[in-house]
Structure formats: C-alpha cells, structure tokens
Fold this protein.
Amino acid sequence: MRSRAFLAAWLCCWGALGAFAQDASPVKLQVVPSVSRATVGDRLLIRVVVELPPGVTITPPLPIPGEGSFLSLDPVKSPDGQAAPNVFYFKAQAFETGNVQIPALSVEWKKADESGTATSQPIPVEIVSVLKSPQETPADLKPPAEIPPPPFPWLWAILGAVLLALVFALAVWLRRRKKPTVAVPAPVVPLLPPHEQAYREMERLLAGSLLREGKIKEFHVELAEIVKRYLAARFTIDALERTSMEVFEDLQRVRVGSEPLAVAREFFGHTDLVKFAKHLPVADEIRRSVDRAYRLVDQTKLSTVPDSTQGEAAPAALVAGSAG
C-alpha cells in the first residue's frame, strides 16, 4: 500500500517537473485557427506564431502525429504576402462531421550551447453538416472558389506579330520583284559641239573676276584648260593629262596643219611662261593669248559645208575647218 502511494507521488512530481521544464522553454507556440466551428468542406487557415527571445534560432513548425481524428496540415504562404520569420500558416480541410483536432506542433530551437523542442497542444474543431436542422434544409453554401484566369500569352502574341510582319514584308518584296518599276529615262540634253562649248567657257572666263582681282596666273591656267578640253573633245586625244609639249606632239600626229600648229606653239609657250616661270604679262600680252585661243579653235573646229552639186542643201558633212 505504501509502495503504491510512493509511486503515485513520484509520478506526480515527475509530471510537475516536466510541465515546469516545458514552461521554462524560451520558445512558445501560439496556434490560432481561423474558426473553431466549420462546415464540411470548409478551408481552415491556421496561424502559428512562435514567440522567441533574441539570439534564438528555430526550425519551421511540424505537426506531431497522434491517434484520433486529426486534421492534415499543409504549409501555405501568408495571405497578405508579408512573410515574418516567426509566423507560419497552414491550411486544413475536413470532409466528415464530428469533433476533430488540429494536431500539436513542434519547433526545434537553439541558442548558443542550449537547444530544445517547444510544442503546442492539440486544438479541437467542430465540423458540422451543411444541413441546418432535422428538416434537412440545406444551409447557405459558400460561393465556389474563384480560379484566376490563365495569364495572357504575351510571348506567343509578340512572336505571332513578328511572323505576320515578316510574311507581309516578304509578300511586298515578291510583288515588287515580279513587277519592276520602269525607270523614266532622263530627258536627253543635246550636247554642244566642242568649239561651241569652248566659246562659251572662254566668254564666261572673260566675264569673270580673275583679271579684275589681279589673278593673272589663275586666268592663264583656266584658259589653257579650256583649250585642252576642246582639243581632247575635237581630236579624241588625252590632252588634259599631258604637258603642253605632249599636246603639241599629239596635234602633229593628227595632222591639224601648219598654221594651227604655229598658233598652238605660241599659245602654250606663253601660258607656260605665266604658269611655271612666274612671268607677269601686260594687258596686250593677255589679249594676244586670248586671241590665240580663239584662233586655234576657229582654225580646227568642225563646220558644215553645203553640197554645190545639188540644187537643195545637202545633209551636213563634218569636215575640218580652215586647217582641213
């Protein structure tokens, strides 16, 4: 009899020590269900707050398996999207009526050289039927959960638009390729004969400002270039890229005649003195150089001669001028 009393007293002391040790844990669990009474199929949200002092680290709470009717807990994110390191959320759902329990949760904690496990107590929840009374009148059902629509397929939309643009561009290119645009020919501007072009250029040179500005050398350079362009077009020689002596030899080769050769020798000899020997001619010398240029063009230009054997004018025949 005494032994049984002693055993009972020892068990009571051990239980009190265990409860004191659990209360002395620095970590506390506070389990708060969204409701304590729910209908079949309702979703329950369980909020678990872990109270811990600074310097203590914890692991996420885990359900402790037990016997009886316990709800199955699944961890979820915070409903408001603001996560806290010591607040956790679980969801549960029951499909049978009766009294069920939210299982106890355990958290392992560690602080410096200390460690332990903090647990919570099971929390009862009553699950009732959707029928309100014996008349079995159905209670108001909750609206079905809204399923968010699938996101708009922006990537496929962009790829489709790009593909459509490429197809359109290819169609336009093929259409233009099959029907090439006919280029409108530019209006044909009749070319002046070489001597007419030379006359115009010399008139433009004389009407210019080179002589008035005292640019004697530049005037003679341009005058010699006009004559060389004329000779190149008239006799098909490369006069522009040759020296005065080489141009004179080309004129001998095409047999322009002795008088035009003498005029050409005097003209290029005088212009070379001004261009290369820094000779400064007076007004009479300048007039003679211009006169030689005009005489050289006059003596070598192409002209039209009527055929005297016919009563009417014959077709124009290109012949040499007075040098011919």
